[in-house]
């Protein structure tokens, strides 16, 4: 036990509460479309931003002072104690972690593995007395200086080997803790200049690396979902996992499209020049939708600020696509979000998650209402209704089509897309 969150009571659903530490919209037991809100949303806390991030930014260092900020096993255990205290306060069903978030950094791979195993055992005992489970685990293959030129795509084969060995231990830890997914996040899988880069070689390395991870996970009996998280631009200029479509092409290239799905982050979608709902709809259309990281970017800053979500209309249209895709199975809503560096108090960490959970609940409730209303889907169906009678066009040839157009005197008139009217339908609910 720690006293980090001392005096903060468990957060409850109370829409009339005068404070900002009560859920006004997130009632875990409220049934929406035949399922409890908790089971729809499957909220998760990100260990890295909540407990490992020191509050720095590109122009300044640490602002947070946490009692566990020390590179020892005792400090890592204290961090875990505080984490589960926060999970209990929030009533969170899941958490996520990188290996480097939960263990001290050692002087060798063997020491890293020993530290990870010790912390996996410790966290396992915490999970036994808590209702919080592991949504997914992953390996941090980007922070340490050894990964400055990437992990899977590194020009040094020893770095490739170190990274592969690390992923093996992290898959083991995820399985041991009952994780429902395993994520591969290529934080530095890209390049900064073509002057020293062999694109073909690096692509083959990345493909082999992912294939080995999938093969090992299945070999040891991992039945969860393996996920890739698309990430554009930051920190390298050209990331190989730029967006959902790019990842799908990569998976197809290496025959992994039926083995791996995507974990889509709102902030990353924006950096790729897309909307969140676009990336979700694209993943669903390609059959690779898995899970989401929920946050928001500052649209003026132009970089990945990882703020807690506050925009209900934006979240509603995102969850609309999640529901259209059938909802989450092993995936969920992970808050890959962090406090502002001026938000120093422990209660700020609680308040950030409370507000985000309320926003997501409002968004999902609105999305469910839109889907049950059916107006948007009816309009979509009507727009493509002509294809029901002319599906043969997709298997015909140009000469036949040209002859039929001339013979039938076809001269189509444009039809309104009704965008404003559809946007008005959305605004009824948000």
CATH superfamily of the largest domain: Divalent-metal-dependent TIM barrel enzymes
| Overall pLDDT | 96
User: How many strands?
Assistant: 12
CATH architecture designation of the largest domain: Alpha-Beta Barrel
Largest sheet: 8 strands, parallel, barrel
Regarding CATH, which class of the largest domain?
Alpha Beta
In the predicted model, the low-confidence regions spanning at least 5 consecutive residues are: none
Strands ordered across the widest β-sheet: 3-4-5-6-8-10-11-12
- So how many helices? 15
Total count of domains: 2
> In terms of structural class, how would the helical and strand content be classed?
alpha/beta
Run of helices and strands: EEHEHHEHHEHEEHEEHEHHEHEHHHH
The third-level CATH topology of the largest domain is TIM Barrel
Please state the overall shape, judged from the principal axes of the Cα atoms: globular
Distance between the termini: 41 Å
Give the percentage of residues in beta strands: 5-15%
Helix content: 40-55%
Q: From the alpha carbons, calculate the radius of gyration and give it in angstroms.
A: 23 Å
